[in-house]
Amino acid sequence: MFSVFVVPARYQLIYWPTLQGRGEFVRLVLEDVGLPYDDLARQAESNGAGGAVVVERMLSHKTQHPLFAPPILKIDELVIAQTPNILWWLGRNHNLWPIEEALCLLAMQVQLTIADLVTEVHDTHHPIALGHHYEDQMQAACKRSVQFLSARLPLFLQHLEDILSASGGVYMIGKTITTVDLSTFQVLEGLEYAFPKGFAYASHRTTKLHALRDRIRQRPRLAAYLASNRRIPFNEQGIFRRYPELDRLTE
Amino acid sequence: MFSVFVVPARYQLIYWPTLQGRGEFVRLVLEDVGLPYDDLARQAESNGAGGAVVVERMLSHKTQHPLFAPPILKIDELVIAQTPNILWWLGRNHNLWPIEEALCLLAMQVQLTIADLVTEVHDTHHPIALGHHYEDQMQAACKRSVQFLSARLPLFLQHLEDILSASGGVYMIGKTITTVDLSTFQVLEGLEYAFPKGFAYASHRTTKLHALRDRIRQRPRLAAYLASNRRIPFNEQGIFRRYPELDRLTE
Inter-chain contact B143–A147, Cβ cutoff 8 Å? Predict the structure, then answer.
């Protein structure tokens, strides 16, 4: 008789160490599933090394698999980049993705729409130049933010509410939880942090979404994560930034 | 003996009728594969009905499958939205997607990075408000465009060149053609149309990309399509717009 030792796959996340950003959508899945993972840049940071260097080294490394931006998830030899791509892979491998083809396509559709929403949130504070400081584009940011909160955010939230209603009101896609529910939770948390007034305005009719967010927050592993110091607090380095001058519905 | 008649699936594209936009990434795949398809809004338009109404009706229709934006592809009962999602489905079903898992993940990664690039191109002429005219945000557009052409576009193009080099220089992903090659072709065409000077600057070292673009253009079905009146010319309603004041590398 032989004993067979199966070495579990090693999950390694590479993302900026001091902010939630797009990496948080991946962290939430790993935490909800209860997968042990190495958050490489944060580990380097807490060891006194520069965590950002870990990310930059990964991006500049010339390999068979060029990378443009984090988050990046490594599973042994497999390298996955682009948030919706990572979520899709994790979802399919850890029971957080639908089975039926039409629902798979709907899940990816909504995951991509959430990614579009996240990009629009980012552009409220960086409408001109990604590489420049917020303070250098504040005037344009104020204008873009008014447009976002008054014209775009209500559309996005109503659409997400419609998706949730169409599936019966409990989960975003079909009758079981998927990565889309976790991403919806995160985007609602971030919007309320960044735009307390604008979010209240845009979400006052999306009651099913609010209830979903409360249910997701109470999932045991997620609740434990959110209460731990592994959850980086929202801050003004991330995508969801609280700048009071941007939380306005009129100029 | 029975005769079995297989009714071929009917492909219906729903997209704005007077511009290439994101719909063109889908049209290129349908044309390259040689799939007959109904371009519903364009057909309505050429019949004297308002083609945009077809799109708006589709988006506002409350069904089991809420939709946020075109392009939308219908295949009998299946409804697919979000460009990378549509391309993934078409690619898998029509021999334009890799088989091996690592290459599938790489293909989706690059497809999503191209989608990000397209969004950044769009924001050069609409940095403040999606729903307002270009002329009302021209000053901010000039600033954003300089940043895009000088800082962002060279990064994107070098990354796409690196992807192509890593796969051996003939196809973007692996050793066979995928939707990623067709999307890369389209984005290069659009960039050269919109920013003749900026594109020349940002792409002067990406020689493999230029060669790929030339090879794709000569694929027989694609060449026939590009020469036909089914190909809507680039214009100033789409994503790639030629505004000379935006084609500058310094303010």
Answer: no
Cα maximum dimension of chain A: 76
Residue A170: Cβ-neighbour burial (10 angstroms; 0-12, 13-18, 19+): middle
Q: B127 and A144 in contact by Cβ < 8 A? A: yes
- For B11-93, which CATH class? alpha beta
Q: What average pLDDT score do residues B142-160 get?
A: 97
Q: Tokens in use for B157?
A: 């193009």
pLDDT for A194-232, tens place per residue? 999 999 999 999 999 999 999 999 999 999 999 999 999
Nearest to B84 among A63, A112, A123 (CB): A112
- Report whether B5 contacts B33 (CB < 8 A): no
A116–chain B Cβ distance below 8 A for any pair: yes
Q: What is the mean pLDDT of residues A91-111?
A: 97
The gap between the terminal CA atoms of chain B, to the nearest Å, is 76
The domains of chain B are located at 11-93, 101-219
Question: Which CATH number among 1.10.260.40, 1.20.1070.10, 2.40.160.10, 1.20.1050.10 corresponds to the domain B101-219?
Answer: 1.20.1050.10
All residues of chain B having their beta carbon less than 8 Å from the beta carbon of residue A132 are 147
User: Closest residue of A to B63, CA-based?
Assistant: A166
Q: What is the ipTM of this complex?
A: 0.96
Contact status, residue B71 vs residue B15, Cβ threshold 8 Å:
yes
- Chain B (221-250) residues lying within 8 Å, Cβ to Cβ, of chain A: none
Q: Which fold has domain A101-231?
A: Glutathione S-transferase Yfyf (Class Pi); Chain A, domain 2 (1.20.1050)
